[in-house]
Write a structure and sequence with these properties.
- This protein has 184 residues and is α+β, with helices and mostly antiparallel strands.
- The protein has a single domain, classed as NADH Oxidase, CATH 3.40.109.
- It contains seven helices and six strands; from the N terminus they run H-E-H-E-H-H-E-H-E-H-E-E-H.
- The protein starts with a helix and ends with a helix.
- The structure holds flavin mononucleotide (FMN).
- Flavin mononucleotide binds next to strand 4.
Length: 184
């Protein structure tokens, strides 16, 4: 798959199957992420591959934050749906950004991290693997830092990257090129 096809084929996956992604595909995607541009050679991106025990803890946290105290009905439908959603993907990789005291550097570093994440997703789709960048509420909770062992004084969690096989969601109508590009 060439770069043009990868850009067009990459779509957010909302519903993953349970099939596992081979480690060499993940390693290749991390290497692609690490090729992203960054200003002042800050290399601000970090990726943490979450093991199954810690993923279970994150699932419990997401349930607690989303549903609080549960009624039996919630447990039967919505909780099970959330558990399936967070259990099915082959990998969960947490993307974080190294903190900077300089606001301009922080902005540029976030841009660089976004480039890195896009590179990662493009590498995955070139290997036939889907992904989703999620910024759900629980990603910035104190417990998430504790579970993932990410030091909040040094790094900011900017996304959960869900990785695996699944069908892309329905087609999105993108803006016409004429509405996003001008030639003066
Ligand atoms: C910074 C960022 C955060 C996102 N967070 C979420 C999220 O929390 N939940 C979600 O369902 N999708 C999330 N997405 C995916 C977008 O909703 C998705 O990219 C958009 O619908 C366009 O679909 P596409 O990726 O298939 O082109 C996020 C995407 C980006 C770039």
């Amino acid at each position: 798959m060439n770069i043009h096809e990868a850009i067009r084929n990459r779509r957010t996956i909302h519903s993953f199957k349970t099939d596992k992604v081979l480690p060499n595909i993940i390693n290749r995607a991390i290497d692609a992420a690490n090729q992203a541009p960054c200003h002042r050679l800050s290399f601000p991106w970090r990726f943490t591959n979450i093991n199954s025990k810690d993923r279970s803890l994150l699932i419990q946290l997401a349930i607690k934050m989303k549903f609080g105290t549960l009624s039996q009905e919630h447990e039967d439908i919505n909780v099970k749906r959330l558990i399936t959603k967070m259990t099915n993907p082959s990998h969960l990789i947490v993307a974080s950004q190294i903190c900077s005291k300089d606001p301009k550097q922080t902005l540029e570093d976030y841009a660089a991290c976004a480039c890195a994440i896009q590179n990662l997703c493009l590498s995955l789709i070139a290997d036939g693997v889907g992904s989703k960048w999620s910024t759900a509420k629980y990603i910035s909770s104190k417990e998430t830092y504790q579970i993932t062992k990410i030091d909040p004084s040094n790094e900011k969690v900017i996304g959960f990257l869900w990785i695996g096989y699944g069908e892309p969601s329905k087609k999105i109508n993108r803006p016409n090129i004429s509405s996003v590009y001008r030639e003066n």
